[in-house]
């Protein structure tokens, strides 16, 4: 678990915006973290500490998963792989379709960047319903790799996202929970 001091600082920094982008959503704005380089470094150190020695590569989910994911990978001295929304990466790509509240979406990664047998950390800023993260994990498994860990800054406990990740038998970590 993260140090209480870090949790408190983040609680004071992350802004809650009610009814954005649609009524009923409590949007967690992490952008104030980037106004404070020292706090950013503490967040990275905490996430790196969770994954040290446990993964061969980091996959970040577009786009806020890149903000911390690349720094985590660099500190761990392992590759970073982009998971993007459909149509942004040039071919060849591997795709995974998943359901949204209304309709569906597709995420993709460049074929061959995740290697068979690798232990992967999937990172995103926030775990909500877990739909996007679950699709990212399926993308990892399609390439013969294993999801060893999931990490997030924030977990939203009422949305039960963690349950969607149970089947991957991976460690799940978030610094703070709402
Ligand atoms: P989900 O697939 O439902 O777990 O959604 C995860 C993605 O949606 C994350 O990449 C978040 O960046 C974004 N997201 C979902 N809910 C919120 C929220 N309440 N505040 C900020 N970002 C959110």
Q: What is the compact description of this entry?
A:
The protein is α/β, with parallel strands linked by helices and 178 residues long. The chain has one domain: Rossmann fold (3-Layer(aba) Sandwich), CATH 3.40.50. It has five helices and nine strands; from the N terminus they run αββαβαββββαβαβ.
Separation of the first and last Cα atoms: 15 Å
CATH topology: Rossmann fold
Relative strand content: 25-35%
CATH-scheme architecture: 3-Layer(aba) Sandwich
Unreliable residue runs: none
Structure description:
Helices cover 31% and strands 33% of the residues. It is of the alpha/beta class. The strands form 2 sheets. The protein has a 7-stranded mixed sheet with strand order 5-6-4-3-7-8-9, with helices on both faces. Strands 1-2 form a two-stranded antiparallel ribbon. β5 (93-99) and β6 (104-110) form a beta hairpin. The radius of gyration is 16 Å and the shape is globular. The protein starts with a helix and ends with a strand. The site of adenosine monophosphate has 17 residues, from β2, β7 and α4.
Furnish the topology, listing elements before pairings.
Layout: H1 4-13, E1 15-18, E2 26-29, H2 37-51, E3 57-61, H3 64-76, E4 80-85, E5 93-99, E6 104-110, E7 119-127, H4 131-142, E8 146-155, H5 161-165, E9 171-177
Parallel strand pairs: 3-4, 3-7, 7-8, 8-9
Antiparallel strand pairs: 1-2, 4-6, 5-6
Pfam families: Pribosyltran
InterPro entries: Ade_phspho_trans, PRTase-like, PRTase_dom, UPRTase/APRTase
Subcellular location: Cytoplasm
